[in-house]
Amino acid sequence: MSNRPLHVLFLCTHNSARSILAQAILNHIGAGRFKAFSAGSSPRDKQQPNPLALQVLRDAGISIDGLRSKSWDEFAAPDAPPMDLIITVCDNAAGEVCPVWPGHPASAHWGYPDPSEAQGTDAQRREAFRLTLHALKRRLELLCSLPPDKLHSSALQSSARQLAGEGVR
Known about the structure:
Number of helices: 7
């Protein structure tokens, strides 16, 4: 690994909730060691980040600057930033055939329920997003706390997949 931050791409189907939350959280807590990105396998036409995702990020004091929904095709292009780790955060994206990523980054699946499918009052729906934010944050704090040797390219796949099995939700 070079002196640049570890590049992590979070994938979900529409890139409107879980992957957006993960990107913002890791960029917030990553202390310059990580640079997070997010994308979707099939974002809808004119897809935007879910307003409740943006609200819970703001409420948590996490910047939403520059967050946008985008296709994972942007990150498979020759001029895309090279990824070190790709993490799917929804079960649909985990089962899809992914592009061939330049550099063959490590990968892991960290599945979370989709908070945008929550039913109920506005407060109940916002709470589903808040719970997802906190679950992602706990797991990402574990990633950030790994020693450098666990983040080296030869160990990264195993490290990220072990975090998936930690039962951190």
